[in-house]
Amino acid sequence: MDPVSLPALSCVALCGGTHGNELSGVCLVREQQRKKEEETEHVTLVTVMSNPRAVQECRRYIEKDLNRCFTAAILSTPVSDRTPYEIVRAQELNALLGPKGSDGAMDLVCDLHNTTANMGLCLISNSDCDWICMHIYKHLQTNISSIPVRLLNLYTSPDESSNLASVGKHGLSIEIGPQPHGLVRADVLSTMKKGVQLMLEWIRLFNSGTVFEGGEVEVHTVVKCIDFPRDPETHDITAVIHPQLQDQDFCLLRQGDPLFLSFSGETEVYRGGAPLSSLCE
Amino acid sequence: MDPVSLPALSCVALCGGTHGNELSGVCLVREQQRKKEEETEHVTLVTVMSNPRAVQECRRYIEKDLNRCFTAAILSTPVSDRTPYEIVRAQELNALLGPKGSDGAMDLVCDLHNTTANMGLCLISNSDCDWICMHIYKHLQTNISSIPVRLLNLYTSPDESSNLASVGKHGLSIEIGPQPHGLVRADVLSTMKKGVQLMLEWIRLFNSGTVFEGGEVEVHTVVKCIDFPRDPETHDITAVIHPQLQDQDFCLLRQGDPLFLSFSGETEVYRGGAPLSSLCE
Q1: Which of A116, A194, A262 to mutate to probe the B interface, most B CBs <10 Å?
Q2: Which residues does chain A have within 8 Å of residue B261's beta carbon, measured at their own beta carbons?
Q3: CATH of the domain spanning A226-281
Q4: What 3 state SS string does chain B have?
Q5: Do the bridges between strand B11-16 and strand B43-49 make them parallel or antiparallel, or are there none, so unpaired?
Q6: A12: pLDDT strictly greater than 70
Q7: Do B240 and A180 touch (CB under 8 A)?
Q8: CATH hierarchy code of domain B11-207
Q9: Which residues of A touch B236 (CB under 8 A)?
């Protein structure tokens, strides 16, 4: 295979607090901001607290999920006094880190998240075959052994991609769990720090002209979303993740495997046909 | 020791959603309310969704922590249009389940909570030497083996007790963790169900005239609260629970044991003198 040559990643944004109650990224960005903006060898690192009002209230968002506001349509919505805070903030962030799809955009936007799911460290990319994302993924996977490292590709077009990471020329979200929202666990924070350090290490190697070997990586994608069983009138959930499935994220789900346990004690099984890898949130 | 004779517990209240994002109790109360109020042999069970607005928003509280609003002083505060929602609601609940300290009060108020701490199943009582609470505790401890069962006594006077359980003639909070706030785990829900069933089983035995043997139980109490290290200006935390202490709730903390790990990597140790049993939230 012919070698692929790509431009350097001179400007990298590290974002936390896109969801205000996912605190590893909030802590990491605060710590980084104490050190001021960093211009280390070969790369300028800009740190951003994405949703400061939600961080202040320790909530996912104030009016609208910020990490669903970066589609081309929402970014070009005219703003009035009644525009939800997060749409205004998304447009500010797009001006700061983008504009999306332009030459002025950050070379890489890395957005830090937590999940209550037993997800390990999961890199989330929007675009198909992004060499940068796949090499960063390989570098993290090779160097982190404490928890599983995976890549989830959403395969969305730039215009349709709604997450903050999609504003950059390249974009990566780093999702780590399990961690309850609203608190910080030292083990999860330390893994996130290591992930970010390894990403920056790879970028420095890349920017200094290192040639990386090709190879194969395993990539996950979203095949299907299954909602909880709900009461048809109140829409309250009527069942929880079955204890045999709980915490078994990314394990293969086969026809007949337990999915949910209803509050009255009945098991609902998977009847989807082909085996499916599961992720419970 | 002479036998102690106590009146029957004819009316029992089971409360959930006192903190709106602690969902095991919310689910259990909803399930129970689907069955309507239950008058089984020897006991009338009343179920209460304590803070419906906070449950609706999946938040701990709207304006003020409801479970700190049941002191004699707050319950007798005059209400105006600007009174926080939870103070109004505390007075409603006091009228429904109390009034606190009166003959009309529920014989037992049991309030259901979750914690992100690795606390196991913990009964929390306000009063010193409450025979009812201690016998229920012993019954649960004898019959639950999946997680540790403990009793925490707060030793507060009825007037000063600020939690909902203090409204009844006898009061017990059941706290189960670890569970992230805002979600339900099947294992935690199932343990809470079992705890409530065992409590009701003991009450039926007690009400039907069973004589229970005396004995000894281990009781925990609050000796000291240690706050996180904080930035003196912003009051943001600057450290997290040390990974060696994380999830080691109720283990003995000795002089020199690690307490916190700062974001910059320094360990802060326990310098309190006497060994202390720890609970991390």
Answers
A1: A116
A2: 186
A3: 2.20.25.160
A4: CCCCCCCCCCEEEEEECCCCCCHHHHHHHHHHHHCCCEEECCEEEEEEECCHHHHHHCCCCCCCCHHHCCCHHHHCCCCCCCCCHHHHHHHHHHHHHCCCCCCCCCCEEEEEEECCCCCEEEEEECCCCCHHHHHHHHHHHHHCCCCCEEEEECCCCCCCCCCHHHHCCEEEEEEEECCCCCCCCHHHHHHHHHHHHHHHHHHHHHHCCCCCCCCCCCCEECCCCCCCCECCCCCCECEEECCCCCCCCCCEECCCCEEEEECCCCEEECCCCCCEECCCC
A5: parallel
A6: yes
A7: no
A8: 3.40.630.10
A9: 30
Q: Was B19 annotated as part of a binding site?
A: yes
Q: Which residues contact A20 (CB under 8 A, 6 or more apart)?
A: A26, A51, A53, A54, A55, A56, A57, A58, A59, A60, A61
Count, residues in chain B: 281
> How does pLDDT run along chain B (281 residues), one tens digit per residue?
678 899 999 999 999 999 999 999 999 999 998 876 555 677 999 999 999 999 999 999 999 999 999 999 999 999 999 999 999 999 999 999 999 999 989 999 999 999 999 999 999 999 877 999 999 999 999 999 999 999 999 999 999 999 999 999 999 999 999 999 999 999 999 999 999 999 999 999 999 999 999 889 999 999 889 999 999 998 989 999 999 999 999 999 999 999 999 998 999 999 877 777 766 65
Lateral strand order in the sheet of B11-16: B38-40, B43-49, B11-16, B108-114, B170-177, B120-125, B149-153, B220-221
User: Is A226-281 the same fold as A11-207?
Assistant: no
> Can you give the length of chain A in residues?
281
Confirm or reject contact between B178 and chain A (CB < 8 A).
Answer: yes
Asked if B128 reaches chain A (Cβ–Cβ under 8 Å), the answer is no
CATH of domain B224-281: 2.20.25.160
Task: Answer whether A194 touches B (CB < 8 Å).
Answer: no
What's the pLDDT at B147?
Answer: 96
Domain locations along chain B: 11-207, 224-281
Which pLDDT tens digit goes with each residue over A150-177? 999 999 999 999 999 999 999 999 999 9
Structure tokens at A150: 């995976």
